[in-house]
Design brief:
Layout lengths: L1 E4 L4 H10 L6 E4 L15 H16 L3 E10 L6 E2 L2 H7 L2 H11 L3 E11 L5 E11 L15 E3 L11 H22 L2
Parallel strand pairs: 1-2, 1-3
Antiparallel strand pairs: 3-4, 3-5, 5-6, 6-7
Helix pairs in contact: 1-5
Length: 186
């Protein structure tokens, strides 16, 4: 089965398809002529993803998935959360890591929310990866907060991991989607 993944990021698409290896599901990119849709401002990651799915569905009129991800620093009340991309682009990942260190606790998690939408009721899938923020960047296989986010079960930052290992971090949410689709399509 082929399913449109509403992302303009080829690395996210490749990583999701890597996570889905072994399933009868291939994510395909958006038509390059389709403009990016504006993202609503909300503290609720699922609400952001659902809104984006509805906006992309409107011109496509076919089932699709969207994924929203973010970094949530527990001592900062979940900041930057759904605003991660904007915050990293504005003040940088080093500043977020310093804010966490200055707060006295660096525990954090990344959260991915995938929404499947076929024009009816959105289906929501979420997964978290726990870890902490480091004070110095490590690794060269990524940028942004991946340089500072040390994954609990590995002791490595996301930027120190090869793509295959990073795909394993994202796999649970994509596998949950694939298994749900397999059940509903039987």
């Amino acid at each position: 089965m082929k399913l449109t993944y509403a992302t303009t990021n080829p690395y996210k698409l490749a990583g999701a398809n890597r996570a889905l290896a072994g399933y009868d599901l291939e994510l395909v990119p958006l038509d390059k002529n389709l403009p990016d849709v504006p993202e609503i401002q909300s503290d609720d990651q699922a609400e952001v993803a659902i809104d984006k799915a509805r906006k992309y569905y409107e011109p496509l009129q076919r089932p699709l998935v969207v994924m929203d991800s973010g970094l949530f620093v527990e001592s900062l009340g979940g900041f930057p959360g759904v605003y991660t991309k904007y915050i990293i682009d504005t003040i940088g990942a080093a500043a977020v890591a310093k804010l966490a260190a200055d707060s006295g606790a660096t525990d954090a998690y990344t959260q991915r929310t995938v929404v499947y939408f076929d024009g009816q009721t959105p289906q929501i899938f979420t997964s978290k990866v726990h870890g902490k923020l480091t004070s110095v960047p490590r690794g060269d296989n990524s940028a942004g907060y991946d340089l500072y986010f040390e994954v609990a079960q590995t002791g490595k930052t996301a930027a120190e991991m090869p793509d295959s290992e990073k795909a394993e971090l994202a796999a649970p949410v994509w596998c949950e989607l694939a298994e749900w689709l397999a059940k509903t399509k039987e």
